[in-house]
Amino acid sequence: MQTSRRAEASPRSGIREMFDLAASYEDVISLGIGEPGFQTPPHIVEAGVKALREGHTKYTPNAGIPSLREAIAHKMSDYGLNVNGENVMVTTGAGEAILLSLLVTTDPGDEVVIPDPCWPNYFGHAAIAGTNVKLVKTYEEDHFHLRAESIESLLTPRTKALIINTPSNPTGAVLSRQELEDISRVVLKHDLKVISDETYSEIIYDGRRHVSIASLPGMADRTIVVNSFSKTYAMTGWRVGFAVGDSNAITQMAKLQESVSSCVNASAQQACLAALRGPQDCVKEMVEGYRKRRDMLLSGLQEIPGISCLVPEGSFYVFPSIKGLGLSSREAAMKFLREARVVVVPGSAFGESGEGYIRISFCGSREDIKEGLNRLRQAIKN
Ligand SMILES: Cc1ncc(COP(=O)(O)O)c(C=O)c1O
What we know:
The chain is an alpha/beta fold. The chain has 2 domains: 5-40 and 281-381, Aspartate Aminotransferase, domain 1 (Alpha-Beta Complex), CATH 3.90.1150; 42-277, Aspartate Aminotransferase, domain 2 (3-Layer(aba) Sandwich). Helix content is 40%, strand content 13%. It has a 7-stranded mixed β-sheet with strand order 2-8-7-6-5-3-4, with helices on both faces. The protein has a 3-stranded antiparallel β-sheet with strand order 9-12-11. β3, α6 and β4 form a beta-alpha-beta unit. The longest helix has 22 residues, at 281-302. The mean pLDDT is 96. The site of pyridoxal-5'-phosphate (PLP) has 13 residues, from α5.
């Protein structure tokens, strides 16, 4: 069948590509995907099972069950947001929330500014929405932090929206309050809307605190905050995320949801309610586990010649430079897969500025990280 230009223009995720390539090799260690190695905490699993037994097996409202919307609104007060249930929409993962946010903030032919490097699914979202992408480069010298003046230099009258992602996948950069204030000044001056992807808001290290741009003066009405249960509660397969913003935008997104999937799985929504209402020690423990894995990976990478690495401030990825190896990022990732049976993602999968880097996930098991490091060391030595 001849497929549409829209489908053909949609790029394939470079992360998935590595994942698929790896499937043809045996004895592979995957440090490629952002999949928590922890299981969903048992009390959340139990709540999901109980919900099924109690008959939560029907459609729910498009925007999600009211109790979960309220609980999410309440959680947002941790980030200084003063919202209620009507400002919240429950979505099929943060991915769907970003797509719907883009669909309600831009029209086909409008421009959206996206950080480079970034989570590559943004390119797919923009292709579906018919929005043109303007990439704002970030640099290792700046610890890959987004600069307000770089954003401003790209704007045209057609630029309607900006996507930011803090903590960042793939770079681990966490934007400070000052940096977000600078960005918000540009946003207000040019009347932009912001889609703030805060999927890793709880996975943050070394005493930093997550700041949401929506909490800054004048920003609440023009920002759609996107977040997820996937990473915070190790719930990737449950597929629940959410968007928080102006109630009119949320109503429009819920309307679009009817044509996409009607609503999110009912029992998964009940499990997420239990996640928010229940004890939060499980989150603290997992984040502490990630911190230990991060430090282990960083000290191992330091011993490998040709690789140098910044300390990630949040998320669970390191983004080391492989420029010293004299290979492109794709060549390096392929070499590591073929010769070391270790999956990493080439930095170029995250945008042009990712060339010269690879992304290594440290959310898996400690054993895999240890063995992965040994194999990488050996492959580079050879
Ligand atoms: C930056 C970022 N945003 C959104 C997502 C999507 O998360 P979800 O599983 O909630 O769709 C991911 C997943 O890796 C991500 O890294």
